[in-house]
Design brief:
By secondary structure, this protein is of the alpha+beta class. 20% of the residues lie in helices and 53% in strands.
């Protein structure tokens, strides 16, 4: 499973990194190094940390998304309703600040945007007596030094999330399914870029609360259990975060700059005191039903961040066994 994760993450990250320039010699760089460089390092990594605080919650809540607004009860029901499977997705992330800081550090090849990858497992179980279901998703990943030409990228993810949905209307012969839900996710990880002479990194810690409403309608051939389920939903999320950034020189750059009056490393924190930063979202997609399997394609957009490099949107594809 770890090999699959590494291949998926590497494929997504590959689009974000190129190598197109050569670093200055250590002596030339040290001769030009001054406080304006440090200001670019600090402001760029602060900007990237703030963008992570927006993108990570979006990536988290787009996991464990089911086409059905309500999967049905576990009891009383024949058969009992539950589902489990895997989900892969990516969220657009503005990395302009990281690119500026990296370039000034002498790390070439970081683009202004990239896609934050997610790969997780999830399970959803129908409720008893009342029409509700409960979902749980989980992911852990630790990949160090993925090399893209001469840029080394380090990625760490840990995500755990849970949600509950209550059906206001159950999917019937004519009526669509309609549910409301509440959820929570915890996300912790790190992201770093480095070359021989410098490194920049961000450690993030983000908690997210959200409420949602979703409508869906299954169109199936009853006997064959083959069909499709379109769905649409709206979601509101708030988050609390503490993201630590840092930069440092190493190798020949460290040796040369150590002889100057300027620092060879720096760090800072971007954080929120409480849950806030309301992000309204619209999401939707289509589930393809094949007997006891469901393949779901979905997309999500942050309504406060639409258009250009600052846009925040996600896409996901899941495959699940579903009763």
């Amino acid at each position: 499973m770890k090999i699959v994760k590494k291949i998926f993450v590497s494929a997504v990250l590959f689009a974000a990194f190129t190598s197109y320039s050569f670093a200055d010699s250590a002596s030339d760089y040290a001769a030009e190094y001054n406080p304006s460089y440090i200001a670019v390092f600090n402001s760029g990594l602060t900007d990237f940390s703030e963008n992570l605080a927006l993108a990570v919650p979006q990536a988290a809540v787009q996991q464990n998304v089911y086409a059905d607004a309500f999967i049905g009860k576990l009891f009383p029901a024949v058969p009992p309703h539950f589902a489990f499977g895997i989900n892969a997705g990516a969220t657009h992330l503005n990395t302009e600040g990281l690119a500026k800081a990296a370039d000034k550090l002498g790390i070439s090849g970081v683009k202004n945007s990239y896609f934050f990858p997610v790969l997780n497992a999830d399970i959803r179980v129908g409720g008893a007596i009342l029409p509700f279901d409960v979902g749980l998703s989980f992911m852990t990943l630790d990949i160090n030094n993925i090399s893209f030409s001469d840029v080394d990228v380090g990625v760490e993810f840990f995500t755990i999330a849970a949600d509950v949905r209550y059906a206001l209307i159950e999917d019937g012969l004519v009526t669509p399914g309609l549910s409301i839900g509440l959820g929570y996710s915890y996300n912790k990880g790190a992201f770093s870029v480095s070359q021989d002479n410098a490194e920049a990194s961000v450690d993030y810690d983000v908690q997210t609360l959200y409420g949602q409403i979703q409508v869906s309608k299954a169109f199936n051939i009853p006997v064959a259990r083959i069909g499709f389920t379109p769905f649409l939903g709206f979601r509101g999320i708030v988050s609390k975060y503490s993201n630590d950034w840092s930069w440092k020189f190493k190798g020949d750059y460290l040796t040369e700059i150590s002889s100057t009056a300027y620092p060879t490393s720096g760090k800072g924190t971007v954080s929120s005191d409480n849950f806030g930063g309301f992000q309204p979202q619209i999401y939707g997609g289509l589930g393809f039903n094949f007997v006891f399997m469901q393949l779901t394609a979905s997309a999500c957009a942050d309504l406060r961040h639409l258009g250009g490099d600052t846009s925040i949107w996600s896409g996901a594809l899941s495959l699940r066994f579903k009763m």
